[in-house]
Amino acid sequence: LFADLKKDLKDEKTEKVLLEPKTDSFIIPQEPKSRPTVQSKLCARTNAHIFVEFGLMLYQFLLKRDKIKGDDYRPHLDPLVRVLTDCLKSEYVKISTLSLQCLCWVLKYDLPSVHTNIQDITEWVFKLLHKYAAAGLSKGDNFDLVMAAFKVVAVVVRDVKLHQLTRQQQRTLLQYCEQDVHNYSRQTLAFSLLKAILGRGWKLPELNAVMEKVAKISITADHDHVRLQARQVFHQYLMGYALGRKFEKHLT
Fold first, then answer.
1. With contact defined as beta carbons under 8 Å apart, do 192 and 153 qualify?
2. Per its UniProt entry, which superkingdom is the organism in (predicted)?
Protein backbone atom coordinates (compact mmCIF):
# COMPACT_ATOMS: atom_id res chain seq x y z
CA LEU A 1 0.00 0.00 0.00
CA PHE A 2 2.76 2.44 0.95
CA ALA A 3 4.64 1.57 -2.21
CA ASP A 4 1.62 2.42 -4.35
CA LEU A 5 1.13 5.71 -2.45
CA LYS A 6 4.76 6.75 -2.99
CA LYS A 7 4.47 5.89 -6.65
CA ASP A 8 1.34 8.03 -7.02
CA LEU A 9 3.03 11.01 -5.29
CA LYS A 10 6.05 10.67 -7.53
CA ASP A 11 3.87 10.56 -10.61
CA GLU A 12 2.04 13.72 -9.47
CA LYS A 13 5.34 15.61 -8.95
CA THR A 14 6.61 14.50 -12.32
CA GLU A 15 3.39 15.63 -13.97
CA LYS A 16 3.61 19.05 -12.30
CA VAL A 17 7.20 19.50 -13.47
CA LEU A 18 6.26 18.58 -17.00
CA LEU A 19 3.32 20.98 -17.00
CA GLU A 20 5.38 23.98 -15.79
CA PRO A 21 6.36 26.45 -18.60
CA LYS A 22 10.01 26.15 -19.52
CA THR A 23 12.33 28.94 -20.61
CA ASP A 24 14.59 28.28 -23.57
CA SER A 25 18.18 28.21 -22.25
CA PHE A 26 19.59 28.99 -25.71
CA ILE A 27 17.93 32.43 -25.98
CA ILE A 28 20.31 35.27 -25.06
CA PRO A 29 18.84 37.24 -22.18
CA GLN A 30 18.05 40.88 -22.72
CA GLU A 31 20.52 43.50 -21.60
CA PRO A 32 19.71 44.83 -18.15
CA LYS A 33 17.92 48.15 -18.41
CA SER A 34 19.70 49.53 -15.39
CA ARG A 35 23.05 49.58 -17.25
CA PRO A 36 23.71 53.02 -18.82
CA THR A 37 24.37 53.03 -22.55
CA VAL A 38 27.19 55.21 -23.90
CA GLN A 39 27.22 56.06 -27.59
CA SER A 40 30.54 56.43 -29.37
CA LYS A 41 31.43 59.92 -30.48
CA LEU A 42 31.70 60.44 -34.22
CA CYS A 43 33.84 63.05 -35.95
CA ALA A 44 33.93 63.77 -39.65
CA ARG A 45 37.63 64.73 -39.45
CA THR A 46 38.76 61.35 -38.11
CA ASN A 47 39.68 59.98 -41.54
CA ALA A 48 40.16 63.29 -43.32
CA HIS A 49 43.90 62.63 -43.66
CA ILE A 50 43.13 59.68 -45.95
CA PHE A 51 41.57 62.02 -48.51
CA VAL A 52 44.57 64.36 -48.24
CA GLU A 53 46.90 61.40 -48.73
CA PHE A 54 44.99 60.30 -51.83
CA GLY A 55 45.13 63.80 -53.28
CA LEU A 56 48.88 64.03 -52.73
CA MET A 57 49.42 60.61 -54.29
CA LEU A 58 47.49 61.71 -57.37
CA TYR A 59 49.40 65.00 -57.55
CA GLN A 60 52.74 63.22 -57.21
CA PHE A 61 51.76 60.79 -59.97
CA LEU A 62 50.90 63.63 -62.34
CA LEU A 63 54.14 65.45 -61.58
CA LYS A 64 56.23 62.31 -62.02
CA ARG A 65 54.65 61.49 -65.38
CA ASP A 66 54.97 65.10 -66.64
CA LYS A 67 51.21 65.29 -67.13
CA ILE A 68 50.96 68.87 -65.83
CA LYS A 69 54.17 70.33 -67.17
CA GLY A 70 54.02 73.51 -69.22
CA ASP A 71 53.08 77.16 -69.06
CA ASP A 72 49.37 76.36 -69.22
CA TYR A 73 49.52 74.62 -65.84
CA ARG A 74 51.70 77.14 -63.99
CA PRO A 75 48.76 79.22 -62.67
CA HIS A 76 47.29 76.04 -61.21
CA LEU A 77 50.55 74.76 -59.72
CA ASP A 78 51.48 78.00 -57.98
CA PRO A 79 48.73 77.98 -55.28
CA LEU A 80 49.53 74.38 -54.37
CA VAL A 81 53.02 75.28 -53.12
CA ARG A 82 51.51 76.74 -49.96
CA VAL A 83 49.37 73.62 -49.54
CA LEU A 84 52.44 71.38 -49.80
CA THR A 85 54.23 73.55 -47.25
CA ASP A 86 51.37 73.13 -44.80
CA CYS A 87 51.35 69.36 -45.39
CA LEU A 88 54.96 69.21 -44.20
CA LYS A 89 53.65 70.10 -40.75
CA SER A 90 51.18 67.22 -40.66
CA GLU A 91 51.21 64.76 -37.78
CA TYR A 92 50.91 61.91 -40.28
CA VAL A 93 54.26 60.69 -41.63
CA LYS A 94 52.77 59.52 -44.92
CA ILE A 95 51.36 62.96 -45.70
CA SER A 96 54.69 64.63 -44.95
CA THR A 97 56.47 62.10 -47.16
CA LEU A 98 54.12 62.62 -50.10
CA SER A 99 54.37 66.40 -49.81
CA LEU A 100 58.18 66.11 -49.90
CA GLN A 101 57.99 63.90 -52.97
CA CYS A 102 55.80 66.49 -54.68
CA LEU A 103 58.16 69.29 -53.70
CA CYS A 104 61.04 67.46 -55.37
CA TRP A 105 59.33 68.25 -58.67
CA VAL A 106 57.63 71.55 -57.88
CA LEU A 107 60.80 73.25 -56.62
CA LYS A 108 62.37 72.81 -60.04
CA TYR A 109 59.72 75.12 -61.51
CA ASP A 110 60.33 78.84 -61.27
CA LEU A 111 57.05 79.62 -59.51
CA PRO A 112 56.38 82.80 -57.52
CA SER A 113 55.13 80.80 -54.53
CA VAL A 114 58.39 78.84 -54.45
CA HIS A 115 60.31 82.06 -53.88
CA THR A 116 57.83 83.11 -51.20
CA ASN A 117 57.76 79.83 -49.27
CA ILE A 118 61.25 78.44 -49.81
CA GLN A 119 62.48 79.69 -46.44
CA ASP A 120 59.61 78.01 -44.60
CA ILE A 121 60.02 74.83 -46.65
CA THR A 122 63.73 74.61 -45.89
CA GLU A 123 63.25 75.12 -42.16
CA TRP A 124 60.60 72.41 -41.94
CA VAL A 125 62.64 69.95 -43.97
CA PHE A 126 65.53 70.32 -41.54
CA LYS A 127 63.12 69.90 -38.63
CA LEU A 128 61.92 66.64 -40.13
CA LEU A 129 65.49 65.47 -40.63
CA HIS A 130 66.36 66.35 -37.06
CA LYS A 131 63.36 64.37 -35.84
CA TYR A 132 63.51 61.28 -38.05
CA ALA A 133 67.06 60.93 -39.46
CA ALA A 134 68.26 58.44 -36.88
CA ALA A 135 71.37 56.33 -37.37
CA GLY A 136 70.68 52.81 -38.62
CA LEU A 137 67.32 53.66 -40.16
CA SER A 138 66.92 51.46 -43.24
CA LYS A 139 63.23 50.78 -43.87
CA GLY A 140 59.71 51.81 -42.99
CA ASP A 141 57.68 55.01 -43.32
CA ASN A 142 60.25 57.06 -41.42
CA PHE A 143 63.00 55.91 -43.79
CA ASP A 144 60.91 56.96 -46.80
CA LEU A 145 60.37 60.36 -45.23
CA VAL A 146 64.09 60.85 -44.57
CA MET A 147 65.00 59.87 -48.12
CA ALA A 148 62.40 62.27 -49.55
CA ALA A 149 63.65 65.05 -47.26
CA PHE A 150 67.25 64.61 -48.43
CA LYS A 151 66.09 64.70 -52.05
CA VAL A 152 64.29 67.98 -51.41
CA VAL A 153 67.42 69.46 -49.85
CA ALA A 154 69.45 68.33 -52.86
CA VAL A 155 66.97 70.07 -55.18
CA VAL A 156 67.10 73.23 -53.06
CA VAL A 157 70.90 73.30 -53.11
CA ARG A 158 71.25 72.44 -56.79
CA ASP A 159 68.26 74.09 -58.50
CA VAL A 160 66.91 76.90 -56.31
CA LYS A 161 69.57 79.49 -57.04
CA LEU A 162 67.79 82.38 -55.35
CA HIS A 163 67.94 80.72 -51.94
CA GLN A 164 71.02 80.12 -49.84
CA LEU A 165 71.08 77.84 -46.81
CA THR A 166 72.29 79.34 -43.56
CA ARG A 167 75.76 78.49 -42.29
CA GLN A 168 74.32 76.23 -39.62
CA GLN A 169 72.12 74.41 -42.13
CA GLN A 170 75.12 73.88 -44.40
CA ARG A 171 77.13 72.33 -41.59
CA THR A 172 74.21 70.16 -40.51
CA LEU A 173 73.74 68.91 -44.05
CA LEU A 174 77.44 68.14 -44.37
CA GLN A 175 77.29 66.13 -41.14
CA TYR A 176 74.43 64.07 -42.54
CA CYS A 177 76.45 63.43 -45.69
CA GLU A 178 79.45 62.36 -43.63
CA GLN A 179 77.32 59.79 -41.82
CA ASP A 180 75.51 58.52 -44.90
CA VAL A 181 78.56 57.88 -47.07
CA HIS A 182 79.17 54.86 -44.82
CA ASN A 183 75.52 53.74 -44.95
CA TYR A 184 74.97 51.51 -47.98
CA SER A 185 71.22 52.18 -48.14
CA ARG A 186 71.79 55.96 -48.31
CA GLN A 187 75.18 56.25 -50.01
CA THR A 188 73.79 57.17 -53.41
CA LEU A 189 71.78 60.04 -51.98
CA ALA A 190 74.76 61.21 -49.92
CA PHE A 191 76.94 61.39 -53.04
CA SER A 192 74.19 63.29 -54.85
CA LEU A 193 74.06 65.81 -52.02
CA LEU A 194 77.83 66.19 -52.04
CA LYS A 195 77.78 66.87 -55.77
CA ALA A 196 75.16 69.57 -55.23
CA ILE A 197 77.21 71.08 -52.39
CA LEU A 198 80.38 71.13 -54.48
CA GLY A 199 78.46 72.60 -57.39
CA ARG A 200 77.42 75.55 -55.22
CA GLY A 201 81.02 76.02 -54.08
CA TRP A 202 80.41 75.89 -50.34
CA LYS A 203 83.53 76.62 -48.33
CA LEU A 204 83.28 74.91 -44.97
CA PRO A 205 86.12 73.88 -42.66
CA GLU A 206 84.61 70.40 -42.34
CA LEU A 207 84.47 69.81 -46.10
CA ASN A 208 88.07 68.67 -46.46
CA ALA A 209 87.67 65.94 -43.81
CA VAL A 210 84.55 64.64 -45.55
CA MET A 211 86.35 64.54 -48.89
CA GLU A 212 89.19 62.57 -47.32
CA LYS A 213 86.68 59.90 -46.34
CA VAL A 214 85.18 59.95 -49.83
CA ALA A 215 88.66 59.40 -51.28
CA LYS A 216 89.13 56.32 -49.09
CA ILE A 217 85.72 54.97 -50.10
CA SER A 218 86.66 55.36 -53.77
CA ILE A 219 89.33 52.71 -53.17
CA THR A 220 88.07 50.51 -50.36
CA ALA A 221 84.35 50.19 -51.18
CA ASP A 222 83.16 46.68 -52.04
CA HIS A 223 80.85 47.66 -54.90
CA ASP A 224 81.96 49.08 -58.23
CA HIS A 225 79.19 51.66 -58.51
CA VAL A 226 80.01 53.02 -55.04
CA ARG A 227 83.68 53.42 -55.94
CA LEU A 228 82.67 55.11 -59.20
CA GLN A 229 80.39 57.61 -57.47
CA ALA A 230 83.03 58.35 -54.85
CA ARG A 231 85.63 58.99 -57.56
CA GLN A 232 83.27 61.33 -59.38
CA VAL A 233 82.62 63.34 -56.22
CA PHE A 234 86.28 63.53 -55.31
CA HIS A 235 87.26 64.50 -58.85
CA GLN A 236 84.71 67.32 -58.75
CA TYR A 237 86.23 68.47 -55.47
CA LEU A 238 89.77 68.48 -56.86
CA MET A 239 88.79 70.36 -60.01
CA GLY A 240 86.47 72.89 -58.39
CA TYR A 241 88.39 74.01 -55.32
CA ALA A 242 91.73 75.75 -54.94
CA LEU A 243 93.47 73.29 -52.64
CA GLY A 244 97.07 74.49 -52.97
CA ARG A 245 99.48 72.02 -51.42
CA LYS A 246 96.65 69.64 -50.56
CA PHE A 247 96.13 69.07 -54.27
CA GLU A 248 99.72 67.84 -54.71
CA LYS A 249 99.25 65.39 -51.85
CA HIS A 250 96.48 63.62 -53.74
CA LEU A 251 98.61 63.30 -56.88
CA THR A 252 101.33 61.25 -55.19
1. no
2. Eukaryota
